[in-house]
Amino acid sequence: MAATEHVDLEQFVEGVKRRNPGQPEFVQAVHEVAADIFDFIQDKEQYHRYQILRRIAEPDRVVSFRVCWEDDKGNIRVQRGWRVQNNNSIGPYKGGLRFHPSVTESVLKFLAFEQTFKNSLTGLPMGGGKGGANFNPKGKSDHEVMRFCQSFMTELYRHVGADIDVPAGDIGVGAREIGYMFGQYKRITNQFTGVLTGKGLEYGGSLVRTEATGYGVVLFLQNMLETKRDGVAGKTVVVSGSGNVATHAAEKIVQLGGKVVTLSDSEGFIYDPDGIDQDKINWVKAHKTKRRGRISEYAAEFRNAEFHAGRKPWSVPCHVALPCATQNEISGDDATMLIKNGCAAVSEGANMPTDLAGIGVFKAARILYAPGKASNAGGVAVSGLEMSQNSARRSWKEGEVQDLLTGIMRDIHGRCLEYGRDRDGYVDYVRGANIAGFKKVADAMLAYGVV
Ligand code: NDP
Question: pTM for this structure?
């Protein structure tokens, strides 16, 4: 086989832009990873010759489909659904479903690309995928959400399966939505298989799955702090978001003796100088899931708490920041403000919450900075454990799953150190995660030849 001409990073990113017009999030995610991979593969001819990175940055397939449903007033509504199957070199496609009006093909392609590296980092046999729809569950009745989920699954079921592609939850997709979708899959196929994760405990779900992403974010933080002989106790922590990841990250911080002072949603953030303790976290969980309420109402419920409309929490002084809402929520200016106010560690719960400028600021300040693909991998890791339990038709005890999660987060941290440690001791967790995640997928692809 003739050797392929090498391109440099700039030419590579230009090519990605050209082939994916109007997809800024996808280009951003590929750019961030490619910068590290280009250095790593510089002297590794095989990866160049077989165009491995170029191939990982081209999804195996993108399925897009119409989702029609009827609202409570009898109006016919039309949404667009997608499933992006990015890469299944090391296992069935695996990744969440997002229901949010901001969902586009670009957002899902970036998430599926990131998921490929994240799943590889867990050490479990899972490829990368992601899906969702531009549907807004907010303000919809349970029956409307059910009809939407059933319609969505009526198309999706042909593309997924326990050994093919196993979706899970993400923004806007929690236990309620997974239940409706699993019910519809079962009805259409007449099969009870582990086709979705994040299921209820009554029908094949795993203990600790609900908590896993948020808990994992803090376990990763703990691993990073331990490299400095430090811990979570006594730290003031700023958290964004108030959904699944944010509330469970906050819960773990409180368990370990830290003080959480903020939470947020898309309308603004609350600051509680007294600290958001377990009782308050329980209130937020019930408020957001059962009552489908807004975080602004926290300020009316708890004395001394303030609501800051239309703002993000990054101006609040803290030792640790945990962005757990959505992509690009920390800009270069936000990152600079965090550092100026004393923030020394960032562990990402959301996917790509820090933009390229922000990442540059954190790296230049040489703080402990964990990218989501490493620090939020606990969720998909326990999803992988849910798949194992489903295949074996058994359920593990809470302590067993907790221990496995703790071990997996420690191992991911170790893999980041292996490829991310500089000669002077500084750990570039972004580089470590990118290279460790890439290597396993790349080597599997080399084994398969050109397919
Ligand atoms: P939820 O739907 O439970 O919560 C999302 C939270 O983020 C809500 O508080 C929501 O506020 C806020 N949010 C969403 N979009 C925006 C926006 N554009 N601007 C500001 N705030 C916003 O989702 P999750 O907690 O599950 O997911 C949060 C992040 O974590 C996402 O990036 C997701 O991809 C990532 N993640 C989740 C995993 C999981 O297991 N659930 C696994 C790994 C990563 P509002 O209610 O106003 O929309």
Answer: 0.95
Does the beta carbon of 367 sit less than 6 angstroms from any atom of ligand 1?
A: no
Distance from Cα 214 to the centre of ligand 1, integer Å: 11
How does DSSP classify residue 425?
Answer: S
Could you report the per-residue pLDDT of 104-138, keeping only the tens digit for each?
999 999 999 999 999 999 999 999 999 999 999 99
Q: Is residue 130 among the annotated active site residues? A: yes
> pLDDT value at position 1?
47
Nearest to 359, CA basis, from 323, 335, 324: 335
Instruction: Kindly state the helix (H) or strand (E) to which residue 83 belongs, with its residue range.
Output: strand 76-87
C-alpha torsion sign, points 213, 215, 220, 225: positive
In this structure, the number of other CB atoms found within 10 A of the CB of residue 219 comes to: 26
pLDDT in tens, 163-204: 999 999 999 999 999 999 999 999 999 999 999 999 999 999
Q: Is 276 within 8 Å of 253 (Cβ atoms)?
A: no
Q: Is the CB of 242 under 6 A from ligand 1?
A: yes
What is the third-level CATH fold of 211-375?
Answer: Rossmann fold (3.40.50)
Say if 61-193 and 211-375 have the same CATH topology.
yes
Class of domain 61-193: alpha beta
- For residue range 240-287, what is the model confidence (pLDDT) as tens digits? 999 999 999 999 999 999 999 999 999 999 999 999 999 999 999 999
HSE (CB half, 13 Å, CA atoms) of 374? 33
